[in-house]
Amino acid sequence: MTTLISFDIDGTLEVGDPPGCITLDMVRAAKASGCIIGSCSDRTVSNQQRIWETAGIAMEFTVLKHQLDAVKEQFPAEDYYHIGDTDLDRQYAERNGFHFLLPDVDVVQLWENGN
Amino acid sequence: MPKVIPVPDELSQPFWDAVNERRLVLQNCAACDKLQYPPQAACQVCGSADGLEWKEVEGKGHVATYIVIEDGRLNRRMPDQPYNLALVTLDQDPTVNFYSNLPGVPAYQAPVGAAVELTFEEVAPGQLIHEWRVAQ
Amino acid sequence: MTSSNNFQWRRDRDGLGVWEHRGKVAVVGYGHSPVDRRWDGVNLDTSLGAYTIMACEKAMEQAGVTIDQVDGIVCCDSHIAGGSGGSASNWAPRPYFDPPYDSEYGITLINAQWLINAMGFKNVRFAPTGVPTIGEMMGMASQAVGDGVCNTCLVIYPTGNLEGRYRRGGENADDFARGARQWTVPWGNHGGNDFINIFPHNQYCLKYGGEHDDLAPFVINQHKNGMLTLWGFNYNHGIEPISVEDYKTSRYILNPLRIWDCDRPVNASAAYLFTTAERAQDMKSQPVYVLNHSQHNFRFRTTQPDLDEVEMWTDRQAARMYEGAGLGPADVDIFNPYDGYSIMTQFFLEGFQWHGVKRGDAFAFYAGDISVKGPHPFFSSGGNLGNGRTRSAMYTDSIEQLRGTAGDRQVTVRAETALCAFTTPSSGGWLMLGKYQS
Fold first, then answer.
1. Could you point out which of A55, A87, B40, C7 has its C-alpha 20 to 30 Å from the C-alpha of C398?
2. In this complex, is the C-beta atom of B10 within 8 Å of any C-beta atom belonging to chain C?
3. Which residues of B lie inside 8 Å of A (Cβ-Cβ)?
4. Does ipTM exceed 0.95?
5. A57: domain range?
6. Which stretch of DSSP H or E encloses residue C364?
7. What CATH homologous superfamily does C2-166+265-280 map to?
8. Shared-domain flag, residues B32 and B74
9. Could you give the residue ranges of the DSSP H alpha helices within C16-105?
10. Which mean pLDDT values do the consecutive 10-residue runs of chain C (438 residues) have?
11. Is position B39 within any domain?
């Protein structure tokens, strides 16, 4: 079963502005577990790519916040998740058939539980 | 989601009372013969407060232009996004304009220049607002 | 303390003639704090209060002025999040800190009295309350110094931004629309200059035959100029210049308004020091002279201003400024209008006819060479779009250009006069500065 996880950056990842609670190690763990991972942010694509290059994490996609539809089209998966900190993240996620998760303790728990 | 509900005040109460009776009334200055909307305490042309009276207007207008709200800040309207916000000019006096969500028109497809006619929409029990729909 | 409820000082009418203090008032210093995206709510050294003190100290240091010599303080006690800022506006109900951070003042608000207490000013005799934004404050200080109400006046513009989303919460979370909002909010317009200007901008495109994305070269140039502004947000926070593709693929906020058309709220403070031209001769910095100031507050005739109104308003702003300065469009070397949203800037450019740009010409002008090293160095500051919403870049760049200290932003054309503003088409103020007194 393939799971795709899309990460917002600002307010969601530890490298965001403001920093969020999702660590880069959590992103690495998701990738290591076989998830399709990428980022979906208002930052320019080039800026997102630079973040991942610096972190040494190969992402399958780096898209703008309103482009989750293209991600779904490009990557077949059983489950689609978008983790973001704003109402807009929720809107785009739900509009495009992604499960929406806030970057909070419950999400961190998923990693700790090995899910 | 329903729209945000207007709260009438002393100045606007006659306007909203009329809307709730499915009528559009605007202030008109007897001295200037000039329509005024939104209501104000005095005529914005001559400054007179005494000459202001409520006048029912014909509910016909045109779409001047429009935008699509994709990332607005109103909690109550966020589930509606994206939605049209059109600028409608009143045929009787095109310097008077109104906002409209153009009910029935899909987002991004508002017909700029099209004729519209007055309609009303209930936003809370007993509270209507004035809206505009594309004329058939 | 003086109340500013008396607006007699304003130059806000048509036909006032040349300003009576033209060239007799000077700007002798400026200071900027660091520009952060937001205050972290923890470090008091980076609070709005601490940043404001820092900005004041820099402005005084630049001119060689001591605290005892300052006898005027014009400080705006509003903050950037505005009336609809909701949870982003106030620190309360969270507990306050030790003095001087034991109220909203110093954290989300700054006023003259807080500064007098916190910095120890002893000789302030002009400290108006209820002061409007920087667009008017610069004129207010100019007039006060010119009139002799004070001699050495600090203008301070703090722009606070707390953790939390700008304009989220507050009235925008309400199910009801009260007051003026009853005419706009039921249909989705929660207010702000994005809404006010996007409709006239659309009408502009229809009337003159352009497209929204014709703004791309202007927005991109603002970012480039911002990267040359050493104190600004973009330069200091690794904000990379955007490309045409970045702009054209960016998401919409109020379609056609894109995210890159909007400035970035920040936590920062700026200060400017005004004095008489006579006193300026004894100070250690190079003065620039105030040639005119002007304010405007045009009333909407109906729900939404249209293009005709906006063009009429900006025509009148230009006429007032040029008349009061005794100058015309061809005399203005540096032009720093306002760009809080990119969609309003063309109205100013065309109204003031800078470099001969007439109504409907702006997009073609943007498509040409508007770089700071070119023949038409439009908006050399980078404005808010290039530096964050400090609303002060326009003033600082103008001073620097006239002094010849703008560094990599220094224009290669003549730089002897500068027009700068924080304004919208309907309200705000302009300042005309000169390298020379006349």
1. C7
2. no
3. 70-71, 75, 78-79, 81
4. yes
5. 3-108
6. helix C362-367
7. Thiolase/Chalcone synthase (3.40.47.10)
8. no
9. 48-63
10. 68 97 98 95 96 98 98 84 53 91 92 96 95 92 98 95 71 92 96 94 98 98 98 94 97 98 94 98 97 96 97 98 98 97 98 98 98 98 97 98 98 98 96 96
11. yes
